[in-house]
């Protein structure tokens, strides 16, 4: 049964999942709202709000302003006075998790260690000073961490250079191995093995589910960002104004002694308005801010929301179809797995029966049959070291050795001596009865 248990354990391996997402300035506010649960989510049904207080950040003790934190990281390392491009990638966010089964096997302290070690690995690689946040979410079905890395290198934002193809490959290959070395049962598929086909199907299914969640969160982030921008636009601006007046002379309709028409001086509105300098500056600032927000909203309406949402919806539909196909494949693989397990069990029984028959045959023909059986087993072991026949023979020899050790031990010899002693009086008694 030893081989069968190992085989069964192989089908239960978990994978380390690291998904990278690029975040630009307009999306950062929405990411903040989602990660820090600042508003009720309407697109992610997996969030259990009663558990949101269990979420925590490995970098900060409380909530932060993401824009401000990212700006501080960039300004503290930036070379020169050149402004950051509006469309620059400010944060490369890593979503770090595994499957639900993996976390169920961990204690609370081990789960915390999993995220702490993950944070340490990436913080050391990309610089602790570049970590904007490390938010751990425990209020969803599967625990996970959002690790925000500001891709600063040589005084510049360099997302394409920091997270290039080789780096992403390193994350997929080295991170699981490092975590395994730290005591976590996380692996990648073994190339060319039967186990790879079954495990990769399960991994793909989990990846599709995570991707679907990420896409839903991305849509929610865009909505949150639009709402945040909308809230910043005031409904009205109250400005204190004063009507401008001037003194003018108007005819009265009367004439003086010299026959000249009389006039009088009166105040008349000019149609202009007077405004204090402080009020004027406040109005100019409001106009500029309104223009900036209007441009941001236009960007969202033209690209980030409409076009991107169409792409996200299309991608979501594709992922749903793929998920359905994977579910079907998963059911087929489960059936195949059960069939293989039954087949393996039958083979084990046949090998066990064959081993017993060979042992009995050798026992009848050879006095020292154990030596012959061992030699036969060794020949099989040369080509098949993990053969069930070899395992059975080793188990039998171990049991035999254990029995011999017990017999020739001090307690065993005493027990044997006692058994011989118990038999002697019986023989003497029979002898005396015969003499009578």
From TrEMBL:
Keyword entries, A-Z: Coiled coil
Bias kind Basic residues: ranges: 426-436
Ranges of biased composition (kind: Basic and acidic residues): 35-52
InterPro entries cross-referenced by the UniProt entry: Mob_Pre
Gene3D superfamilies: 3.30.930.30
Coiled-coil residue windows: 283-364
Pfam families per the UniProt record, alphabetical: Mob_Pre
Region entry Disordered, spans: 30-52, 416-436
Stated family: Belongs to the plasmid mobilization pre family.
The name this protein goes by in its record: MobV family relaxase
Source organism: Kurthia gibsonii
């Amino acid at each position: 049964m030893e081989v069968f248990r190992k085989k069964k354990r192989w089908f239960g391996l978990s994978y380390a999942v690291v998904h990278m997402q690029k975040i630009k300035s307009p999306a950062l506010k929405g990411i903040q709202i989602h990660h820090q649960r600042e508003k009720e989510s309407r697109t992610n049904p997996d969030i259990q709000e009663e558990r949101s207080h269990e979420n925590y950040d490995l970098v900060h003790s409380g909530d932060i302003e993401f824009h401000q934190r990212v700006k501080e990281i960039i300004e503290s390392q930036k070379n020169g006075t050149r402004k950051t491009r509006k469309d620059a990638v400010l944060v490369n966010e890593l979503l770090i998790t595994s499957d639900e089964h993996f976390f169920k096997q961990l204690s609370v302290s081990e789960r915390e260690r999993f995220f702490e070690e993950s944070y340490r690995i990436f913080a050391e690689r990309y610089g602790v000073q570049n970590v904007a946040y490390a938010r751990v979410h425990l209020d969803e079905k599967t625990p996970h961490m959002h690790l925000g890395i500001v891709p600063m290198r040589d005084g510049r934002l360099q997302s394409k250079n920091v997270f290039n193809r080789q780096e992403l490959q390193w994350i997929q290959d080295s991170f699981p191995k490092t975590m395994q070395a730290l005591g976590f049962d996380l692996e990648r598929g073994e190339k060319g093995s039967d186990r790879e086909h079954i495990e990769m199907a399960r991994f793909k299914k989990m990846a599709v589910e995570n991707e679907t969640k990420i896409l839903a969160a991305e849509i929610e982030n865009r909505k949150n960002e639009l709402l945040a921008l909308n809230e910043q636009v005031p409904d009205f601006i109250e400005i204190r104004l004063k009507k401008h007046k001037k003194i003018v002379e108007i005819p009265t309709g009367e004439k003086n002694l010299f026959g000249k028409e009389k006039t009088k001086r009166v105040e008349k509105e000019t149609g202009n308005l007077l405004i204090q300098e402080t009020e004027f500056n406040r109005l100019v600032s409001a106009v500029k801010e309104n223009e900036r927000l209007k441009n941001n909203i236009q960007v969202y309406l033209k690209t980030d929301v409409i076009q991107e949402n169409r792409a996200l919806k299309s991608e979501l539909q594709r992922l749903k179809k793929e998920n359905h196909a994977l579910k079907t494949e998963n059911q087929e693989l489960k059936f195949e797995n059960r069939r293989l397990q039954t087949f393996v069990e039958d083979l084990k029984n046949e090998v066990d029966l064959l081993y017993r028959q060979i042992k009995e045959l050798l026992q009848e023909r050879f006095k020292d049959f154990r030596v012959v059986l061992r030699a036969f087993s060794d020949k099989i072991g040369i080509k098949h070291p993990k053969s069930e026949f070899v395992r059975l023979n080793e188990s039998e020899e171990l049991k035999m050795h254990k029995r011999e050790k017990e017999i020739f031990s001090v307690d065993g010899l005493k027990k044997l001596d006692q058994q011989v002693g118990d038999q002697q009086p019986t023989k003497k008694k029979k002898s005396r009865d015969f003499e009578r």
